[in-house]
Every structure is written in structure tokens, then in C-alpha cells.
Design brief:
Keywords: Membrane, Transmembrane, Transmembrane helix. InterPro entries: Peptidase_S1_PA. The chain crosses the membrane at residues 41-64. It is a single chain. The protein has 290 residues and is α+β, with helices and mostly antiparallel strands. It folds into two domains: 31-65; 83-283, Thrombin, subunit H. The protein contains seven helices and 13 strands. The chain has helices at residues 2-17, 19-24, 37-65, 71-76, 138-141, 215-218, 277-283; strands at residues 83-86, 93-98, 104-110, 115-119, 128-132, 148-153, 161-166, 190-195, 202-210, 228-233, 244-247, 250-255, 267-272. A six-stranded antiparallel barrel has the order 8-9-10-13-12-11. The chain has a six-stranded antiparallel beta sheet with strand order 5-2-3-4-7-6, covered by helices on one side. Strand 6 (148-153) and strand 7 (161-166) form a beta hairpin. The longest helix has 29 residues, at 37-65. The model is unreliable at 1-22 and 71-76 (pLDDT under 50). Bound molecules: 2-acetamido-2-deoxy-beta-D-glucopyranose (5 copies). The site of one 2-acetamido-2-deoxy-beta-D-glucopyranose has 4 residues, from helix 4.
Length: 290
């Protein structure tokens, strides 16, 4: 060992004596066996630093990517059991993102070529941008800005208004509108489609059943019975304000409550959209009812 080392050291001394070699054998391309201990340590330290920096970048990216990811829900499995569907299959759903953080705050429904119906809560967190249609289609990917907005009075369980967002841009190819259903069939299943905890790439979906519940007794506020639709859910997805209530391809309601802890309550309340018909007709003549 000693011998080898002294040999190496000697070699390097010899090498560094000549000018050309000094140039040729710099830190980068000195053969491993020719390095001094210090050079080896520096080389190893450099490698470690590169690995650590790369790992830090990767982890940082993961953290950014999963910023919305709720670790507790992940452990608990409730959200994991929630069924999800692809965005592409629901072209009448608009995703409402915050401009500042790009966070998905709500979903809304395209009820005509240029109008999105949403819950007023969706606008409370700051300026928004709409994403509609396939996230990979370049026409749709860039998103759409809201040109103007109208409020529609609605005496819901936690909110007092719905909002109608108007987009002037041509969204052909990105969206399809959904008709508003005037008659709920209590015998048939309902679907709740909404914002998924997995972020903006999928939507949550679960079945629900209409409950003839005296909604006036549920909350202290005076609610008109017709204005609120109460349902119980069979799925394990949380329901967020603004989620859509759909039956046979018709839009019946927008969630007016947010249910995060599914264990405490299985009943969810929706704004009955047929009570908003008059306003919707006034604001956008292209909204269709069935
Ligand atoms: C997880 O779910 C169980 C019921 O499935 C519930 O009792 C518990 O409080 C939940 N824990 C968290 C952290 O949400
Ligand atoms: C919207 O765009 C589509 C094609 O992208 C075009 O066919 C249609 O005429 C446009 N509509 C308007 C009103 O510009
Ligand atoms: C509920 O409505 C009735 C009449 O419609 C009114 O007398 C009462 O004060 C209202 N209660 C609340 C809590 O608003
Ligand atoms: C509720 O709807 C029923 C018919 O479905 C109607 O007769 C009644 O007038 C409505 N009530 C209100 C307050 O709109
Ligand atoms: C929704 O409102 C309409 C019109 O007021 C009413 O006829 C209908 O019964 C309501 N639906 C529910 C489920 O309360």
C-alpha cells in the first residue's frame, strides 16, 4: 500500500513538473489511480454534491406536482376509493383554476356555447381562468378567460348566488353544452361529478339517490323547498361546492354544500336549477332546458 501511494505521488510530482502535462492532466481528466487523496476526496465530494442536487431537484418537482395532494386522505383511503373519470368524456364540465397558483378550485357546467354556470364560492379565492376540454389539445390547453359575469340569486344552504361566467372566445372543439333538466326522476339514479383530489386531470364520480327531506328543517336559514335538492351518496368521494348533479345526461343541480368528511354526513344539497330558469333565460337565450 505504502509503496503504491508513494509511487503515485511521485508520478504526479513528475507530471506536474512539465508544462504540457500540467495542461493535459487537470482536475477533470486525471486518471483515478494518479490522483492524490485530496483530489480523490474532491472528486467524490463533487459526485455526491451532483447526486444530492439532482435528488433535491427531483424531490422539489414532486412536491410542486403534488402540492394539492392530501397525505392524510391518501393514508385514509377514502379518496383513493373515489371513482374517477377522464376529462375528455365530460366536455360540458369547465374546470375553474386560480390564475395565481393554477390550483383547481371548482368545476362548473357549460350550459351554452359561451356560458359556464358555477357556484359563487368558486370566485372567492381570486381571479380565475377556465380550462375546458382535453388537456392535451393545443386549442383547449391554453384555457379561456372570463369576459364577464352575472350573479343569479339562489337561496342555497351555504351560498346565496350562482354565477354565470361568459367567455367570448370560440371554444368549438373543446366543449359541448349540457341541457338543464326540469324534472328529476326520484326512481332513477343520479350522478355527482366533481372536482377530484387528484388534481386537474380527472373528475370524481359517484352515484346518489334523491331524498325527500324537509330541507327547511336542516338549516336555520329559510330555504324554499323547491330551491334545494337533497341526495344521499353511495360513493366515497367528497362533494365540493359547485359539483354537478346529473341524471340521464341532463344537469339538475350544482352542489351548494361542501362535504369533506363523508363519515359525518351522507346527505348533500344541490341548487335546483329549474328554479333559476327565469334568470338563465334572461341572461343567455341559448341555454336549453328539457
Ligand atoms: C379515516 O377514516 C375513518 C373511517 O373510515 C375515520 O374514522 C377517521 O377519522 C379518518 N381519519 C382521518 C385522518 O381522516
Ligand atoms: C369557431 O371555430 C370553428 C373551428 O375551430 C369554426 O368552424 C367556427 O366557424 C368558429 N365559430 C365562430 C363563431 O367563429
Ligand atoms: C322565515 O320566513 C318567515 C316568513 O316567510 C319569516 O317570518 C321568518 O322571520 C324567517 N326566518 C328567518 C330565520 O329568516
Ligand atoms: C315549487 O314547485 C311546485 C311544483 O313543483 C309549485 O307548485 C310551487 O309553487 C313551487 N314553489 C315555489 C316556492 O316555487
Ligand atoms: C325544482 O324546482 C322546480 C320548480 O320550482 C320544482 O317543480 C321541482 O319540484 C324542484 N325539484 C325538487 C327536487 O325539489
Amino acid at each position: 500500500m505504502d509503496n503504491e501511494n508513494s509511487e503515485n505521488n511521485k508520478n504526479i510530482e513528475e507530471v506536474s513538473d512539465t508544462e504540457e502535462n500540467k495542461f493535459n492532466y487537470n482536475f477533470i481528466n486525471t486518471p483515478w489511480d494518479d490522483r492524490t487523496d485530496r483530489s480523490r476526496i474532491t472528486a467524490i465530494a463533487l459526485l455526491v454534491a451532483i447526486i444530492v442536487a439532482t435528488a433535491a431537484l427531483v424531490i422539489n418537482n414532486l412536491v410542486i406536482h403534488y402540492k394539492d395532494f392530501h397525505y392524510e386522505s391518501f393514508l385514509n383511503n377514502t379518496d383513493i376509493d373515489c371513482n374517477v373519470v377522464k376529462l375528455e368524456d365530460y366536455p360540458y364540465i369547465a374546470r375553474i383554476h386560480l390564475i395565481s397558483s393554477n390550483e383547481l378550485v371548482c368545476v362548473g357546467a357549460m350550459i351554452s356555447k359561451h356560458s359556464v354556470l358555477a357556484n359563487e364560492l368558486c370566485l372567492k379565492s381570486g381571479p380565475i381562468r377556465l380550462r375546458i376540454g382535453s388537456p392535451t389539445d393545443p386549442r383547449c390547453k391554453k384555457g379561456f378567460s372570463v369576459n364577464f359575469m352575472e350573479t343569479i340569486p339562489h337561496n342555497g344552504v351555504i351560498t346565496k348566488h350562482l354565477v354565470l361566467l361568459s367567455i367570448l372566445e370560440n371554444m368549438t372543439g373543446c366543449m359541448k353544452s349540457i341541457k338543464i333538466g326540469l324534472h328529476l326522476n326520484p326512481q332513477k339514479n343520479l350522478f355527482i361529478i366533481g372536482r377530484s383530489f387528484r388534481g386537474g386531470r380527472v373528475l370524481s364520480i359517484q352515484m346518489a339517490k334523491y331524498v325527500k327531506e324537509d330541507v327547511t328543517s336542516v338549516e336555520l336559514r329559510n330555504l324554499s323547498k323547491n330551491e334545494t335538492i337533497a341526495v344521499t351518496t353511495f360513493g366515497k368521494c367528497p362533494v365540493r361546492a359547485g359539483d354537478l348533479l346529473v341524471q340521464r345526461g341532463l344537469l339538475l343541480g350544482l352542489a351548494s354544500t361542501s362535504v369533506h368528511k363523508r363519515e359525518t354526513s351522507k346527505t348533500v344539497y344541490f341548487a335546483n336549477l329549474s328554479t333559476a330558469r327565469k334568470y338563465l333565460n334572461l341572461l343567455d337565450a341559448e341555454v336549453r332546458f328539457s
